[in-house]
Amino acid sequence: MSRLRSVLCALAVVLASALRAEPYGPPPAPPLPDGYAREARETVILWRPPTKGRTLLVVAGDEPTPKDFDRADLLQLARARNMTIAFLSAGRKDALALRPALASLRGGLKVVGAGEQADADTLQSVAKTKGDKLFDALLLTDAAPQDLGVGAPLIVELYGADAFWRDAPPPAAAKGANVRRYFLGGAVTEPGDSKLCSGPVNDRSIAPAERALLAALDDFIHGGPAPPPSREADLAPKKNLAWPKIPGAAAPPQGDGLAPEIDADGNETSGLRLPDQALPLATFTGWSPQKGDCRAGARYDFPPSREAREKSGDPRQSLVERYGSRAYFVAALRSVADKLVKERLLLPQDADAYVAAGKKAPF
């Protein structure tokens, strides 16, 4: 009987412990990098830095998956600058609901909003002046211009070559002294699904420009100099553009309207030209041969040698013909990249990355 009593007591202890245990559920999300803490709210997902920062970055888009936490993008720079980061999550389309939610997060922080296309337009709707100023600055990509009213934040807009070759009209220029616009020559801001493209994909990234401009905005809202002057596209009628006859390349889309001016290789010559556009290894376009909804643009590598160029009939020079040697190419990349750093249009670490990639160019 005493043994039975002991067994029953032991069972009671186990049952009591089980009742006190946490209910079964999915494991908690892995910790964020750099000591950040994650907090889920009704309308936003919040990443808090380990120590109090000075800026809140409001990202109009989905929170990245754990495998993407360390990707080299705006979030990496934001964490390096100790920014609090808010993702507008499932409630991001309800501008009226977002205003009080974001206002409650300010807590003395300066606020920068970042988003692309429809999400960028949502940010502008949230930012419209209603007796208060929710954002200190906006970093928008391929956005539709809106009148944000008196006292609107400083707005930085980016757009790429694809804006001139899709069905929708390119974004019109927003007006005002508080607006900066940068055309990313030879780059696309909405790559879409490259599997829908029948030609080689334009794989150039606009992320280095986004990072540099976020840093410029962060400095500005805390008393630093204003972001660099706008760099718009120089436009010409599409029908007047003299495209090179590249072997295997499809003709550009037909139609009226304007598009960025190009050089003899078919590369765009205006706007903010990152090092891989100023010293290209290929022809980069904002349009692509389509087998569906292809928005990635195209990439047509320069011929590998003079012999290959002459054999194929490619009118474009090979890398050796245009740059001479890899050593000269790398030195030229360093010069272009350093100039952009001085102009605050490229971060030093991204300048180094372009030079490192240049050392692997296929000469």
Verbal overview:
The relative contact order is 0.10. Mean pLDDT is 85; it is low at 10-25. The protein has helices at 2-20, 74-80, 95-103, 117-127, 207-221, 275-278, 306-312, 319-323, 326-342, 348-358; strands at 37-40, 45-48, 55-60, 84-87, 110-116, 137-141, 154-160, 179-184, 235-237, 258-260, 282-285, 298-301. Helix 3 packs across helix 4 (117-127) and helix 9 (326-342) packs antiparallel against helix 10. The strands form three sheets. An eight-stranded mixed beta sheet has the order 1-2-4-3-5-6-7-8, with helices on both faces. A two-stranded antiparallel ribbon has the order 9-10. A two-stranded antiparallel sheet has the order 11-12. The chain is an alpha/beta fold. It contains ten helices and twelve strands. It starts with a helix and ends in a 5-residue tail after the last helix. It has one domain.
